[in-house]
Design goal:
This protein is an all-alpha fold. Helices cover 73% and strands 0% of the residues. The chain contains nine helices and no strands. It is globular, with a radius of gyration of 18 Å. The chain starts with a helix and ends in a 5-residue tail after the last helix.
Length: 244
């Protein structure tokens, strides 16, 4: 991304986190219902909408859907130690989130999710190190995080299905949805079927939503999981190179 795009992404991320923190602190009454007024309710959706429009327009110059370039040609890790460090840190944060969940520090106490998260994080580490060394990447490894995110989404939705307050749960659920979509788009590059024009704006919004979901401070496991996913997104965004 260009420098101005990184600046916009940073400002949007800070604004989204601030908006969600403000809403969590003063946007609900003692019964957990949204308080009157539209500013706190509309702030985060407005920020996300403007960011989505901006990054979609910024990505217009990128190659169209189904670019023939592979994963190594699209994400330059050997020249970018910051990207490698970010992905590695993100994977270990996901590991830690799974461990916290097993210790009862998570809202979803499902051992299967912790196991899937650990395997998915391991696959992300494998991909990052392989790209850094210039080795071939087995595309199936990038499908494992997709499966883990889908499973997390299913369990999360079932756990929150009885919650009538949409404003309380939509950020977390939307974050997992966007992270899943972008993980699937990332996996497509390993099969030379990636779409840079779609992946970049979705990745930017996935990063913003992951940080906003972490800012809810629901549990230690949730915070670590979303921070980890955000760090992984940042790493791949930093390594992305779609120039022809």
């Amino acid at each position: 991304m260009k420098k101005k795009d990184w600046l916009i992404l940073m400002l949007v991320s800070v604004a989204a986190v601030a908006a969600r923190v403000a809403q969590c602190r003063s946007g609900f009454d003692e019964a957990g219902l949204p308080v009157g007024g539209t500013l706190l309710r509309a702030a985060l959706p407005g920020i996300l909408l403007l960011a989505a429009v901006y990054f979609a327009l910024a990505a217009r110059a990128l190659p169209a859907k189904r670019a023939a370039r592979g994963l190594a040609e699209s994400f330059r890790f050997p020249e970018n130690k910051l990207a490698v460090a970010s992905v590695i840190a993100g994977a270990f944060l996901v590991f830690a989130g799974g461990a916290m969940s097993l210790l009862g520090r998570g809202t979803l106490r499902v051992p299967l999710l912790s196991l899937l998260g650990a395997v998915g994080a391991g696959c992300v580490l494998y991909v990052a190190f392989a790209l850094y060394r210039g080795s071939a990447v087995q595309g199936i490894a990038l499908l494992v995080p997709v499966c883990a995110l889908v499973a997390y989404l299913v369990f999360l939705y079932r756990a929150e299905a009885s919650n009538p307050v949409l404003a309380e749960i939509y950020v977390m659920i939307l974050a997992v949805c966007i992270l899943t979509v972008n993980a699937l788009q990332l996996a497509a590059f390993a099969f030379r079927d990636g779409a840079p024009r779609l992946w970049l704006p979705v990745g930017a919004i996935a990063l913003v939503l992951a940080l906003a979901a972490a800012a809810e401070l629901r549990s230690m496991a949730s915070v670590l999981l979303f921070l980890g996913c955000g760090a992984v997104e940042f790493g791949f965004l930093a390594a992305a190179d779609f120039q022809k």
